């Protein structure tokens, strides 16, 4: 490289002088004043510049020559460019040397990287710029996040210019996944889409802002550089234009997609179908029947309206809000037909709410009981958006409807209401915003199931109107989905806005609320209230999170006492609330009787019942219409009608205005579950398959659709919908049918094992969906924990493409990991990751890499776990998935915890917890708190550990995760055991064992029994401890869990040590090492070496004891295992005492006492205190020893043996009265 010339060196050194003299001539003393330099510095600078010909002296002072002026300006530009480039270095790091970027693109740019602590900041910047843009030009090698296309579509819809250039691969991916959005985008009058080569860095211009988008090797966003400098904007705009002009224009190709969609959906109108055609936005009134008509969703349970109410015939098109499920509350809607008993069977209509037929639910707050709806109204009236969160069957939609009706009746302002699973997917955000803003008074918008994909855009509208005090939003959300938003279809800004939404939880029923409900039901039905509502409440309590809600169960009990159900007579015991009768009059018993009765009847009753319940769980209306799909040459329509009549009062609870009204979905879920329990799985799968296939085949068979029209008397809205677009209907219907099992994995048996699936997909089903069904079935079995079923399904699945094979390999990996086959799991996850990468599926890639990290961690390969978790973190950031980021941070923290136990572990957990809290992921937050509790306990911070564990326990109980609840109970037991609180430790273990028995987890039961053994060992009940531990060992052997067997074996070694059987102890230690093999972590190694040291000490082999204890101490300190460290210190003190090295023994024993006292470790404190007492008692002159009094011992007692004996007695775990507690609520053998 050529060295810079002397001229350049002078300019660099004296640039401030040159730049100042460009503006005008100055004398030397003036330069001293202007620049603040000394006179000598000014003299030297002028001499150098004059000698170089860059300045010249004139009568009025010195000024730059032409050369000096040119060089000053050029060099300043160079420094500016260098500063811009330097600031963007990290952002540009993934780009190769051949990437074409002008320095102008970086002029005054702000850079943002996808890295902690704010890894999604780049996406927020992009989304924020696009949200308010009046024109966009972009050239992209990949999509930064999926909703970017929707942003561009909205700009194009507004008539603004949109120029989009994509690489061929990205275009094909977007056309396949987001065809409708691209088609609508390209139809804009000022929109153009092209496919171009040479797009190696993202370039985006929105109005007067330019953004460079840099992607990493995995296709994720690495960072962005954002500039509003005119040169940067001009360069970016020219870059996009040149790429677009050089590429292939695909605008017309994409416009054809929109034209096809318009042809499919454009024949909608407002004329008479026998139902009110009014809407949320137009004239007329929409019937409550139509307001409840729902749709069916994707296989991940999001809603869609393949079976929804058809648009009315004739006239102009409907208001988009009405077509997409919104209804405006008005007096006509509230004054419709109302059935007093309707809310006892199904979600109430608005007319039934207005008539007072629903209970105004209350909850205790600050010592007084208040209406939940009124509290919501108060907060909404103050302008705060709210979310009402609760489990299925808890009554949250009823509370939302009551709040909406009261808001309307109060005259505050209009109410726009979108029931769950209603209409088409909501996308008319601009129309909703306009309606809300233009409303007179304070507008209330209520959206049920807002976390579903078809309703989620409402969150963005709420965010956009957050600063207005005359518009409020009320959202309803199912708890299990709200608390685990792994796949929420929200953009980064909407996810961030969820923090500002006031979340309120549906409270559990208490005795007072049960009394109110009983009186309410008695008033509606004209019957006598039950005598003991509290006994009924006890009967319906359900700890399992996936069971029907307590409210649903309780209402069923109360309705049965009034003889309002047709399936069985009530009994006096049930009427009186006799608890001994609850099993016979309960919801489960009622459903079981219905299953028996319907399946024992001749065809087609069972088939119609199965289909009706399947469609009800899928959120489908028009059940009666679809039931006639089961009519054929052997089954007359009249037989179907008789079967439907038999379902009245159980599955169907018709009203004069809604003959298709069905029971609560949870009743149907329980029906299908009981059906699987009653009949062999292949029989049920065949029954379900036949019914589902007959419905799906309607997409291919116009003749059968005509027969259904004749059977129902001509008006067949569902058949109308199919005929408008059979292919679109078939796609939605297939997703809906399989969505039932995806939402409720315990119903996987309905679909067979892939090998004998009886559901035939129609010819109209799109090709890209045909390979999804086996994938969905596999995931059902995996999520349900049926590993044999999952394996059978995986073996039978033959994917048609790379993406399908990737999912299949990931499924095998999940099964292997859950079985403890960690090497096989890692191999499967590696295969899946390679296939996901080849298919350009980054979300799948992130999941596969996380799976590999977890498998490596469980296998004890913590370095590999750390590497995989770190990669998963990078991919999660790239795909704009903050929950995936949080989970990977937790995995990284777990790996670090196993590797070195530094403070970095806590830091990772804290960041992960912050993300989970930010996005209201209660389950994820509980997971982090569980890990934090373990890490805190390991460090001896027991008070903090207990706080974290208690909060984790609250979180798991909130979301209903009993498996994790058992884990936290065992952690709380371990904390109590470390403190010597044996009774509390045993109680936690017993409770965990009861949960394990209830959920059928052999693994957690084995954990609980081993904890009982450890507590018994601490209490000195060695025989009982051995029985428990051997039972746990056998259970772990059955599970092939070697690391867990090693855990038990080392505890059994300690039992034998306390008995004095050194040979037996050594055999258990040998077994421990053989089980651990090369996967021994520091904790296990520290425990084994410490115990080997104690065995050697008891044998009198002091050298061997010292070496083993030293090794154990090093491992404990390296891993941060303070309890093992304290015990090893005490044992090393005993070795020194045996060697008569008194000073060393005193130092080690007092250190063990200090550490043991700090971490509250009874197993270290007691032996250390006893050893100190014995050492001082045997010394001829204890007062002459220089003993530094340990923390719990006063200075005056530092050499008093009695003080240490008292200390040991105070901390000693007392076995008196504890033994009986071990067997409470369970057998002694565990």
From TrEMBL:
Disordered: annotated span: 260-325, 564-588
CDD domains registered for this protein in UniProt: HTH_ARSR (cd00090)
InterPro entries per record: ArsR-like_HTH (IPR011991), FilR1_middle_dom (IPR013561), HVO_A0261-like_N (IPR057527), P-loop_NTPase (IPR027417), TPR-like_helical_dom_sf (IPR011990), TPR_rpt (IPR019734), WH-like_DNA-bd_sf (IPR036388), WH_DNA-bd_sf (IPR036390)
Ranges for domain Methanogenesis regulatory protein FilR1 middle: 119-242
Positions of the HVO-A0261-like N-terminal domain: 12-80
Pfam name, any one: FilR1_middle
Comp. bias regions, Basic and acidic residues: 285-295
Biased composition annotated in UniProt, kind: Gly residues: 268-284
SUPFAM superfamilies noted in UniProt: P-loop containing nucleoside triphosphate hydrolases (SSF52540), TPR-like (SSF48452), Winged helix' DNA-binding domain (SSF46785)
Record field: compositional bias (Low complexity): 303-312
Name of the protein this chain belongs to: Transcriptional regulator
Taxonomic lineage: Archaea, Methanobacteriati, Methanobacteriota, Stenosarchaea group, Halobacteria
